[in-house]
Amino acid sequence: MSGIGLLKIKPSDLKFPFELKKPITCCMQLTNKTDRYVAFKVKTTNPKKYCVRPNMGIILPHMTCSVTVQMQAQNEAPPDNQCRDKFLIQSVVAADGAATKDITPEMFNKAPDKVVDEFKLRVVYIPANPPSPVPEEPEEGWSPRTLDKGTQTSSSFDNLSNSHEEPSKGKSPEALTMISKLTKEKSDAIQQNQELRQELFSLQELVKKQRNLHRRGFSVMFAAVVAFLGVLFGYTIKKG
């Protein structure tokens, strides 16, 4: 895939310490590398299995958004502990001052005159309690890439349901309820933090504009005063 690389995404794969009958949480960081507002949306090949908060949003220039992915409790492990699930993160330049409520599905439709960046992440199961720590390769900035040798388009991914969707009933003991509550509170705090950053950024831009207008007005007034004094001085000399 081609793209201008709007976002820097960490990690490159979503690694879950798999345990049966327990919800598992993983986080990723989306950093806006541009000087523009960027809208993003998260999709997955298995939307009923995961809860993502937020599943879409606006990232201000050079700001970072934390996204929490929670996998619902699983009753059985996949063969060889291998997972085929994948996530797709789409991003596109948004209008300055845009907010999450301004995001529409049409924003992510591809067109000849519009670039929609796409980044795929695999879901990887790792041991919940490894016998010894194994150093991982350092993660750097990643640009959009294709994970499989075969062709896989964004149509293979489904939109995530409401980002506040809770795990299935019948699989929620007291511990599961508490974890879900804490996860929701964390996500709400992250969302509020993003909104505050956006308001602060808008306020800073307004202050800059007002300061520039004030300076411009002062320059014009100063020039007018100097011109008046020059005329007055010339008149005084001529009269004398």
Summarize the structure in words.
With about 240 residues, this protein is of the alpha+beta class. It folds into two domains: about 5-125, Sandwich (Immunoglobulin-like); about 175-240. About 30% of the residues lie in helices and about 25% in strands. It has one helix and ten strands, in the order E-E-E-E-E-E-E-E-E-E-H. It has one helix spanning about 175-240, and strands spanning about 5-10, 15-20, 25-30, 40-45, 50-55, 55-60, 65-70, 85-95, 115-125, 160. Strands 2, 4, 6, 8, 9 and 10 form a six-stranded mixed beta sheet that branches. It has a four-stranded antiparallel beta sheet with strand order 1-3-7-5. InterPro entries: Ig-like_fold (IPR013783), MSP_dom (IPR000535), PapD-like_sf (IPR008962), VAP (IPR016763). One of its GO terms (biological process) is endoplasmic reticulum-plasma membrane tethering.
Label this structure with key terms.
single chain, transmembrane, four-stranded antiparallel sheet, alpha+beta, 1 helix, Vesicle-associated protein 1-3 isoform X1, Immunoglobulin-like, six-stranded mixed sheet, 10 strands, Ig-like_fold, coiled coil, 28% helix
Instruction: State the end-to-end distance.
Output: 81 Å
Query: How many individual domains?
Result: 2
Helical residue percent band: 25-40%
Shape: elongated
Mean pLDDT figure: 80
- What is the CATH topology descriptor of the largest domain? Immunoglobulin-like
- Pattern of helices and strands: EEEEEEEEEEH
Q: What top-tier CATH class of the largest domain fits best? A: Mainly Beta
Q: Count of helical segments?
A: 1
Contiguous low-pLDDT stretches (5 residues minimum) are: 141-151, 162-169
Largest sheet: 6 strands, mixed
Q: Can you tell me the CATH superfamily of the largest domain? A: Immunoglobulins
- Beta-strand percentage? 25-35%
CATH architecture descriptor name of the largest domain = Sandwich
GO cellular component, one term: plasma membrane
Domain MSP: 6-126
Region (Disordered): 127-174
Coiled coil: 179-213
